[in-house]
Amino acid sequence: MIRNSIYIGILLFILSSCSGYEKVLKSSDYNLKYKKAFEYYNKGDYTRASGVFEQIVTVFRGSSKSDSVSFFQAMSAYKQKDYVTAQYYFNTFAQTYSYSQFTEEAEYLSAYCLYLDSPNPSLDQENTIRGIETLQTFMRKYPTSKYYDKSKQYMIELQDKLVEKSYLSAKLYYNMGGVTLKSAIVALKSSLEDYPNTKFREEIMWLILDSNFKIAENSVESKKKDRYQTTVDEYYSFISEFPQSKWKVDAQKIYEKADKMTK
């Protein structure tokens, strides 16, 4: 009996709460809506806050309350982890209100949303590139911002994703083998050229060496000698930079055979 009463009480509370929200949405009192939107937001009810802010954002445009409504409309989406919508709102806000007290934070959060929405390195990195560009712009504009160090950290993390994406794309050609090994060499060298300090540098150079050797092994006789010579050259480049590489033994075997075939 007591349990039933509790359930009924909870149900009545929910219905009453929903009814109150519906009344706010249907109200023509925009000052009331403004007040309730912030009440919902401050209570952590970001879904309802978002719904009310959506209704009043155009109503208060041009007023002294305009920037606060627009900013917290964006914040409501951000708090709901709808980073695509939030980024759009923050970016629009920054372009519209260049002198608002919220502008710096909006520009930072616009970039941060792109960071949060950046996919893993195996996927398309459009948002990652946009995130890097937006963070760089923010850091140039606000060099003394309290968000500067975090922005720098996020930018480095996003750049690391591009490095890994480049490495994975190049390695895909290598893994396919056969006729794609030539494409693998081009892609691997391009990755090194774009990101010379990549953490994958040792492996990339090993893959270039191994790819050249495999191509030489499967070449027609007239091309074998030149391709084995290219393999020897790649060996010297690899071993001089990574003399204690975990691929040292395999690289030495490749070198000995390739060098023999050039004689």
The helix/strand series, from N terminus to C terminus, equals HHHHHHHHHHHH
Rg = 29 Å
Low-pLDDT residue spans: 4-17
Q: How would a textbook summarize the main sheet? A: none
Distance between the termini: 97 Å
Proportion in β-strands: under 5%
Beta strands, count? 0
Shape: elongated
Individual helix count: 12
Structural class, by secondary structure, is: mainly alpha
Helix content: over 70%
Mean pLDDT value: 92
Describe this structure as you would to a colleague.
- With 263 residues, the protein is mainly α.
- It contains 12 helices and no strands.
- Helix 2 (30-42) packs antiparallel against helix 3 and helix 3 (46-56) runs antiparallel to helix 4 (66-79).
- Mean pLDDT is 92; it is low at 4-17.
